[in-house]
């Protein structure tokens, strides 16, 4: 006698957990990737601005007292950048030290065929970010050139202006793309949750028929959606952390852009965004099904 094979039935209102979490995680990961790009671009901007320099070359006959006086004048200048301890960022390399550095790097001693050291003592100063426009840089150059004992002032002309323009253009593109991406992701997450709750519309109706209030019906869905959103944010954060660490190991200079505090802030934002979007989208969808008539459910 042939026995009937039991048919496994799907539960009423079963929720597609995996597809929802996967979709939200993917969307949040893309947002996180863009956020990481924005953070790195801002860190690169700060690094560039913190390292804008001018070289102040001295006359060959300048005395030690003049060097000391010149250093003091530079330290008092408002356009010289200061470190975290408030110390002006000024370095001095004597012509003898410069010659030794050159020989160490190239293996050639130019004094052997020139008969003298043609290099000059030089002060290198870092320019404060507030004084980095092209007009201000030219004004600083004139002020430094007028100081006693100064032979020449050098810096890369138009570099600062070019950097400022490029950073402004990149920031505008990233901001526009970020706005568009966030809009698309919100729609994607909203539609994903809406489709997931579509499978539970009859469960919502059943709860209404047994006398459950709207608030009582909403809360289980809202709590679950917040949990799924936070879990999706966690998955996206872990994936983003793994990719960023891989990039830092593969590209040595990329680690200069690493900021652990900002990374954690980004991960926290992804967790919050996942929970918030899950809550908001679920609230809209549940309210919609609570208002539908029996005929409209079909």
Poorly predicted ranges: 7-12
Shape, per Cα inertia axes: elongated
What can be said about the biggest beta sheet? 4 strands, antiparallel
Oligomer state equals single chain
How many DSSP-defined strands?
A: 4
Q: Give the structural class.
A: alpha+beta
What is the domain tally? 2
Query: Helix proportion of residues, in percent?
Result: 55-70%
Ends: how far apart? 41 Å
> Count the helices. How many?
10
How are strands sequenced across the largest beta sheet? 2-3-1-4
What order do the helices and strands follow?
HEHEHHEHEHHHHH
Strand content: 5-15%
How confident overall, as mean pLDDT?
Answer: 82
**What Rg do the Cα atoms give?**
32 Å
Folded structure, characterized:
This protein has 298 residues and is an alpha+beta fold. The chain has two domains: 17-47 and 162-297, no CATH class; 53-154, Alpha-Beta Plaits, CATH 3.30.70. 66% of the residues lie in helices and 7% in strands. It has ten helices and four strands; from the N terminus they run αβαβααβαβααααα. It has helices spanning 17-50, 64-75, 95-106, 111-114, 134-145, 159-198, 201-209, 214-250, 260-291, 294-297, and strands spanning 53-58, 90-93, 122-126, 150-154. It has a four-stranded antiparallel beta sheet. Helix 6 (159-198) runs parallel beside helix 9 (260-291) and helix 8 (214-250) runs antiparallel to helix 9 (260-291). The longest helix has 40 residues, at 159-198. It is elongated, with a radius of gyration of 32 Å.
Note the topology.
Layout: H1 17-50, E1 53-58, H2 64-75, E2 90-93, H3 95-106, H4 111-114, E3 122-126, H5 134-145, E4 150-154, H6 159-198, H7 201-209, H8 214-250, H9 260-291, H10 294-297
Helix pairs in contact: 1-6, 1-8, 1-9, 6-9, 8-9
């Amino acid at each position: 006698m042939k026995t009937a094979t039991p048919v496994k039935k799907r539960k009423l209102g079963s929720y597609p957990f995996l597809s929802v979490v996967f979709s939200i995680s993917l969307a949040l990961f893309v947002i996180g990737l863009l956020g990481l790009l924005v953070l790195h671009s801002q860190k690169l901007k700060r690094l560039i601005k913190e390292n804008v320099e001018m070289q102040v070359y001295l006359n060959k006959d300048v005395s030690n007292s003049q060097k000391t006086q010149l250093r003091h004048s530079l330290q008092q200048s408002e356009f010289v950048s200061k470190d975290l301890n408030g110390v002006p960022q000024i370095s001095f390399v004597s012509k003898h030290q410069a010659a030794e550095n050159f020989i160490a790097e190239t293996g050639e001693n130019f004094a052997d065929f020139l008969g003298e050291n043609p290099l000059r003592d030089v002060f290198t100063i870092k320019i404060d970010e507030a004084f980095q426009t092209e007009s201000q840089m030219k004004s600083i150059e004139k002020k430094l050139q007028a100081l006693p004992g100064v032979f020449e002032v050098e810096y890369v002309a138009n570099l600062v202006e070019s950097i400022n323009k490029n950073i402004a253009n990149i920031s505008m593109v990233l901001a526009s793309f970020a706005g568009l991406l966030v809009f698309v992701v919100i729609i994607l997450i909203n539609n994903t949750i809406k489709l997931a709750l579509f499978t539970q519309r009859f469960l919502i109706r059943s709860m209404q028929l047994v006398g459950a209030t709207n608030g009582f019906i909403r809360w289980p869905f809202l709590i679950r959606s917040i949990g799924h959103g936070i879990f999706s944010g966690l998955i996206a954060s872990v994936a983003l952390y793994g990719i960023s660490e891989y990039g830092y190991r593969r590209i040595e200079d990329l680690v200069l852009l690493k900021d652990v505090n900002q990374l954690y802030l980004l991960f926290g934002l992804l967790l919050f965004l996942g929970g918030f979007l899950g809550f908001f989208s679920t609230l809209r969808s549940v309210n919609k099904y609570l208002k539908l008539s029996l005929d409209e459910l079909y």
